[in-house]
């Protein structure tokens, strides 16, 4: 194939012409219809916002809701135009070519050599919306994105939507918006090169000494066990033939066996004989090992047996000899074929086992670090919740391996269809302060006393479904440690929605201290005397009193997942994972948080390991990056095998490794070496990278447990140790590369 392909291309050639990207009249008409329909919907949304009739989405303002709706509609236009373009390519007659199989651009996209279907649709149909930091272009000029448009204009053409294609040509404003988005892409590419380079270096330094030992475990250079079996199955990711990390494509393997092992004249196996034969072979070849692979193989064989049984029962099988022969070769399986299939599967499984000495740590570090260059540096908004930033791409990977995070909790409800229940849970979870539910707080001055008068906004309490009464508010005030202490004797309730609070007469605060506190907390408050200072301070304290909710949960929103039939769940910003799990109405089995450190504190270190694996795999898959799960498992185990979540940083490396030389080779070299010399630390280096630094030669192969001493000769034996010297080094420098090996 390698020799034949260049000969074919040298004779035929492969080129792209204007005819490959010329739209048909039908496609142009369909595109015009989509644009007119989509633009009309966008204008309707804008009119609703101007008239105050636009219903805000959960957790969003009216402006954010409008942006979300318009972006959704414009994305729909681009997707529909792209789909129409792909469908139209198979019907139009392009120059001298008769069908889409000869369209050069489409051929490149399908075979994966260059480009994608989006690129083709942009060349032929519609370029689409230009995004700046995940949003439509902002109003960089005074109240408008460009001086070509009216002020405060929110229409698609004024906010970066390019309706033309590259074939038809862009207008001046469309070209300007396109250059803005292109510049962001260039800067993003330049910056993330340095970010991902340092990210990969940290991963390599923290994982470089992990290797597979002869007992199948993954160990560090000092013998610490990180994994009992690499990737939980002991298989080499490089030997996987199927997708999603599976060792074999069983369907393809069975077809190969059927083609290479003819059915011959032997009788087909009956159902019982198939089951007995497969069990006998698997017991002999696998035994009790490879349990997961054996289960998958047994399930596949069971499926083949059931399919064979259905074929044997069909009337066509018994009608004549020709139909019987065809069905036997297509669906049935003989004794020799079943034996060959099972033996080939077991043989490939054993061949795929990871070899002892493989530097799985360095391989995992590069396998995770290299694809990260394909990801973006920006954070995106959560779908439908414009007010919540969900970090993705390179920043998210950095957060995970640095063991830091901006915690986001996704809580599943017991009744996923009840939006009223979701609102009630949010009311109990989200922080509610007295200032948010007060209609007013007024200072009342009378000749004989001064007090505060508070009136609750009962309508807001009812809309937010808060479980708050005057009695709970009084208790919250008494529990809160205010700058000016408030006692129960100072509070008087008036009716069901009002209360009066008198300032204390024996306050220990002076006017000067009150001024400093007001500068920090209230700002712009002018102090004019003792009574006013105390009063202003008392005004500030109740406003921040925590009435309901969890203190660390700053914001909550209801998220309706369209992919699962508008199931309602709660998205919360905060780290009180234990508090949300204990909230009634929340299904703790399906509630998760994206912070591994908090998961470790609440659910344990194994749950934190699973959280790290899930978060990294989710981030990679969001960018279309395929990554073998075994590499991520090793990274998660390296971060958690000490019993706590350690980051891949200089501070985490100190807790992971005890070797002075390894720490010095990473960062803060002088500090580590000086401290080791001061405390007279000893660092044995039996194998791997450290020994190569002092031996003066590079490692022979990435197999630390099978270090080869090529070009060394034994000088002498001292106290049970062997002194080796390399023949290329001068005799007076032998001491600089002495290697001590325990006998």
Automatic annotation (TrEMBL):
UniProt KW keywords: DNA-directed RNA polymerase, Metal-binding, Nucleotidyltransferase, Transcription, Transferase, Zinc
One record GO biological process: DNA-templated transcription
Domain RNA polymerase Rpb1: 51-162, 169-659
Leading EC class: transferase
Pfam families xref list: RNA_pol_Rpb1_4, RNA_pol_Rpb1_5
GO cellular component, one term: DNA-directed RNA polymerase complex
Enzyme Commission number(s) of this protein: 2.7.7.6
Gene Ontology MF term list: DNA binding; DNA-directed RNA polymerase activity; metal ion binding
Lineage: superkingdom: Eukaryota
Entry protein name: DNA-directed RNA polymerase
Annotated organism of origin: Ancylostoma ceylanicum
Taxonomic path: Eukaryota, Metazoa, Ecdysozoa, Nematoda, Chromadorea
């Amino acid at each position: 194939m390698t020799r034949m392909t260049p000969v074919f291309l040298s004779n035929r050639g492969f080129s792209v012409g204007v005819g490959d990207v010329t739209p048909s009249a039908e496609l142009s008409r369909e595109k015009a219809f989509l644009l007119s329909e989509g633009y009309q919907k966008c204008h309707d949304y804008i009119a609703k916002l101007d008239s105050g009739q636009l219903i805000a989405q959960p957790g969003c303002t009216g402006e954010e809701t409008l942006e979300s709706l318009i972006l959704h509609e414009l994305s729909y236009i681009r997707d529909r135009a792209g789909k129409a373009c792909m469908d139209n390519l198979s019907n139009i007659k392009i120059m001298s070519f008769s069908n889409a199989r000869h369209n050069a651009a489409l051929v490149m996209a399908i075979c994966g050599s260059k480009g994608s279907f989006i690129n083709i649709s942009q060349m032929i149909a519609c370029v689409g919306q230009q995004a700046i930091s995940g949003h439509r272009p902002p109003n960089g000029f005074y109240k408008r994105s460009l001086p070509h448009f009216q002020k405060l204009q929110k229409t698609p053409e004024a906010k970066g939507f390019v309706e033309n294609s590259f074939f038809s040509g862009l207008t001046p404003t469309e070209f300007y918006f396109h250059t803005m988005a292109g510049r962001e892409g260039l800067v993003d590419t330049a910056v993330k090169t340095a970010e991902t380079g340092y990210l990969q270096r940290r991963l390599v330094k923290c994982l470089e000494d992990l290797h597979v030992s002869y007992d199948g475990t993954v160990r560090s250079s000092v013998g610490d066990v990180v994994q009992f079996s690499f990737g939980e199955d002991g298989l080499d990711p490089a030997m996987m033939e199927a997708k999603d990390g599976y060792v074999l494509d069983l369907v393809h393997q069975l077809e190969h066996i059927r083609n290479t092992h003819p059915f011959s004249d032997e009788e087909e196996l009956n159902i019982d004989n198939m089951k007995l034969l497969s069990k006998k072979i698997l017991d002999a070849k696998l035994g009790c090992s490879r349990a997961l692979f054996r289960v998958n193989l047994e399930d596949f064989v069971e499926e083949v047996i059931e399919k064979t049984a259905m074929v044997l029962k069909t009337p066509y099988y018994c009608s004549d000899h020709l139909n019987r022969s065809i069905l036997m070769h297509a669906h049935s399986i003989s004794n020799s074929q079943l034996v060959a299939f099972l033996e080939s599967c077991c043989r490939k499984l054993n061949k795929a086992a990871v070899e002892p000495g493989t530097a799985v740590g360095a391989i995992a570090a590069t396998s995770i670090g290299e694809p990260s260059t394909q990801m973006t540096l920006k954070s995106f908004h959560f779908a439908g919740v414009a007010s919540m930033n969900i970090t993705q791409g390179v920043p998210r990977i950095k957060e995970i391996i640095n063991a830091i995070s901006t915690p986001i909790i996704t809580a599943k409800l017991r009744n996923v269809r009840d939006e009223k229940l979701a609102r009630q849970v949010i009311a109990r979870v989200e922080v509610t302060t007295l200032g948010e539910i007060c209609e007013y707080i007024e200072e009342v001055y009378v000749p004989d006393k001064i007090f505060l008068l508070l009136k609750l906004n009962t309508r807001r309490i009812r809309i937010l479904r808060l479980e708050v009464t005057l009695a709970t508010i009084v208790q919250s005030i008494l529990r809160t440690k205010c700058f000016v202490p408030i006692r129960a004797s100072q509070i008087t309730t008036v009716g069901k929605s009002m209360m009066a609070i008198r300032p204390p007469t024996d306050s220990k605060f002076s006017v000067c201290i009150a001024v400093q506190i007001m500068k920090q907390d209230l700002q712009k408050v002018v102090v004019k005397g003792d009574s006013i200072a105390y009063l202003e301070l008392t005004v500030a304290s109740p406003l921040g009193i925590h009435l309901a909710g969890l203190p660390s949960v700053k914001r909550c929103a209801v998220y309706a997942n369209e992919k699962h039939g508008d199931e309602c769940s709660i998205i919360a910003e905060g780290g009180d994972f234990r508090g949300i799990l204990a909230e009634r109405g929340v299904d703790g089995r399906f509630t998760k948080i994206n912070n591994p450190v908090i998961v470790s504190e609440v659910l344990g270190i194994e749950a934190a390991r699973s959280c790290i694996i899930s978060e990294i795999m989710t981030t990679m898959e969001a960018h279309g990056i395929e990554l073998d799960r075994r590499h991520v498992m090793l990274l998660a185990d390296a971060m958690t095998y000490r019993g706590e979540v350690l980051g891949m940083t200089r501070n985490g490396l100190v807790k992971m490794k005890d070797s002075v030389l390894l720490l010095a080779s990473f960062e803060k070299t002088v500090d580590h070496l000086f401290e080791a010399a001061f405390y007279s630390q000893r660092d044995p280096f039996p194998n791997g990278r450290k020994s190569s630094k002092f031996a003066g030669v590079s490692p022979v192969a990435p197999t630390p447990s099978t270090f080869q001493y090529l070009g060394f000769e034994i000088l002498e034996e001292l106290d049970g140790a062997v002194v080796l010297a390399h023949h290329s080094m001068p005799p007076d420098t032998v001491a600089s590369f002495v290697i001590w090996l325990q006998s």
